[in-house]
Design a protein that fits this description.
In the native structure, TdcB is in a dimeric form, whereas in the TdcB-AMP complex, it exists in a tetrameric form (dimer of dimers). This is L-threonine dehydratase catabolic TdcB. With 409 residues, the chain is of the alpha/beta class. The protein folds into three domains: 224 residues, Rossmann fold, CATH 3.40.50.1100; 93 residues, Rossmann fold (3-Layer(aba) Sandwich), CATH 3.40.50; 79 residues, Alpha-Beta Plaits. The protein has 16 helices and 14 strands. α1 packs across α8 and α5 packs parallel to α6. The protein is elongated and about 85 Å long. The mean pLDDT is 92.
C-alpha cells in the first residue's frame, strides 16, 4: 500500500481503537529537555489499558473477525504485552483466546493475561518458537491467528498512536519509538509521515536483540541466532515481512541501546517523572540519554517525542533493574581498597569515606589474598554516592590519601 492508503487505513481503524483503548497523556520532560537543550515530550503508553500500546492493534484485528472466525476463537504468541492486549480485546468481543508465551515470560504478564480470560500455554524459549506453536494451533483448531506485529490491522491500530502524537504536539520534529518486530514503529512512521513528511522517525532496539540493523543491511528480514536482553517487550529475533518493508521505506534511523542505558533510563524515569516503565518501554528515553551524556553520537531535532511503550514490569525485576541502573550511573560503587594491617586502619578508611560524602552499605575485611603483601589488608566496600561527579571525587580523595583503590564491576 502507498503511504496515502496506509493513512486511510489508520484513520478507518481509529474508531475501533478509541472504543477499546484510552488516549494516553503527553507529558513534557523537563530533565530531558534540559539535558538535550530542546523540548522533549513523553507519550505515556505505559498508562494505556493493559499497560502497553498493544491493545490498539489487537482491538482492530479482533473487531474485524467474521462470525465464523469468532466461533473458533483467537490464538496469539507473546512475551506478555501483546498477550494482554489480545486477551482484553477478545474478552470485550466475547470470544475465547489462547496465548502461547515463552517459558521465561514475566509472571505478572502471564497472570494478567489469564486474568483477562485467556488460556496461557508455554510454547518455547523465544517468541519465534511461540509463533510457530500458535500457527500450528490455528491450523489444528481453526482459531484466528493474531500476529503481534506483522499484519495490516495490527499496524493500522498501532498507527493510531502516531495520530495522537501529531494531534497532541503538531510541531513535533522527531518521534523516537521502542522497536521489536516493528509493528508500532511502522504504524507510527506511516501515520506521522502521511501528515508531516519532514518529521524524523527513529526506532530504538536493545543492542542484544537488534534484528533490524542486520536485516536492513541485508535487504530482507534476518533472524538473529541468539538474544539476551531484559527488555522482553522488544526481544524479537526477526522482523516481519510487512513491518520490515514499512520500516525500511519510512523510518529515518534505527538506533540500539545497551542494557545499562535502559537501566539508567528506567531509574531516571521513576525518579524524575514518577513513571514506572518496563525496560523495553524505556528504550527510546535511553537513546536520548546516551546522546545527552556523550555516550552516543547523533542528534534529535526538537521538539522530540519519546514513546514510553509499556509499563508492565515484574516487581522483582524492577528491584534488580533499579540496582543495575544505579550502578551504571555510579550511584553505587564497589571498591577494593588495600590498607595497612594496623590498629585503627579500617576506622581511618571509613572515616575518610564518610568525610568525602560516601555512604557505606557493606564492608568485607579480607586478610588472606594472593595479591596482598605481609602487613596489608584488603577491604571490599559497597558505597552509595550522589552520582558520576561525586564518585570521581570520592575515588580521587581516596587515592590522593595514599590508598590503592580498584573499582569493581
Amino acid at each position: 500500500m502507498s503511504i496515502e492508503e496506509w493513512a486511510a487505513a489508520i484513520a478507518e481503524a481509529r474508531p475501533l481503537v478509541d472504543a477499546a483503548a484510552v488516549r494516553t497523556p503527553m507529558l513534557e520532560s523537563r530533565w530531558l529537555s534540559s539535558a538535550l537543550d530542546r523540548p522533549v515530550w513523553l507519550k505515556c503508553e505505559n498508562l494505556q489499558r493493559t499497560g502497553s500500546f498493544k491493545i490498539r492493534g489487537a482491538a482492530v484485528r479482533i473487531s474485524r473477525l467474521t462470525e465464523e472466525e469468532r466461533a473458533h476463537g483467537v490464538v496469539a504468541a507473546s512475551a506478555g504485552n501483546h498477550a494482554q492486549g489480545v486477551a482484553l480485546a477478545a474478552q470485550q468481543a466475547g470470544i475465547h483466546a489462547t496465548v502461547f508465551m515463552p517459558a521465561g515470560a514475566p509472571i505478572p504478564k502471564e497472570r494478567a493475561t489469564r486474568a483477562y480470560g485467556a488460556e496461557v500455554v508455554f510454547g518455547g524459549r523465544f517468541l519465534e518458537d511461540c509463533l510457530g506453536e500458535a500457527r500450528k494451533y490455528a491450523d489444528r483448531t481453526g482459531a484466528a491467528f493474531v500476529h503481534p506485529f506483522d499484519h495490516a490491522d495490527i499496524v493500522a491500530g498501532q498507527g493510531s498512536l502516531g495520530l495522537e502524537v501529531m494531534e497532541q504536539l503538531p510541531e513535533a520534529a522527531t518521534v523516537v519509538v521502542p522497536t521489536g518486530g516493528g509493528g508500532l514503529l511502522a504504524g507510527v512512521a506511516v501515520a506521522v509521515k502521511s501528515r508531516r513528511p519532514d518529521v524524523r522517525v527513529v526506532g530504538v532496539q536493545a543492542s542484544m536483540a537488534a534484528a533490524y540493523p542486520p536485516s536492513i543491511a541485508a535487504g530482507h528480514p534476518v533472524r538473529l541466532k541468539e538474544m539476551a536482553t531484559m527488555a522482553d517487550g522488544i526481544a524479537v529475533g526477526e522482523p516481519g515481512t510487512l513491518t520490515f518493508g514499512l520500516v525500511r521505506d519510512h523510518v529515518d534511523e534505527i538506533r540500539t541501546v545497551s542494557e545499562e542505558s535502559m537501566s539508567r533510563a528506567l531509574v531516571t524515569l521513576v525518579e524524575r517523572e514518577k513513571l514506572v516503565v518496563e525496560p523495553a518501554g524505556a528504550a527510546a528515553a535511553a537513546a536520548l540519554m546516551d546522546v545527552a551524556s556523550g555516550d552516543a553520537d547523533g542528534d534529535f531535532p526538537g521538539p522530540v517525542v519519546v514513546v514510553l511503550s509499556g509499563g508492565n514490569i515484574d516487581p522483582l525485576l524492577l528491584g534488580k533493574v533499579i540496582v543495575h541502573g544505579m550502578s551504571a550511573g555510579r550511584r553505587y560503587l564497589s571498591l577494593q581498597v588495600t590498607i595497612a594491617d594496623v590498629p585503627g586502619g579500617l576506622a581511618r578508611l571509613l572515616t575518610l569515606v564518610g568525610d568525602l560524602g560516601g555512604n557505606v552499605l557493606e564492608v568485607v575485611h579480607e586478610r588472606v589474598s594472593p595479591g596482598l603483601h605481609l602487613g596489608e589488608v584488603e577491604v571490599l566496600l559497597q558505597l552509595e554516592t550522589r552520582g558520576e561527579p561525586h564518585a570521581e571525587t570520592l575515588l580521587e580523595g581516596l587515592r590522593s590519601s595514599g590508598y590503592v583503590v580498584v573499582e569493581r564491576s
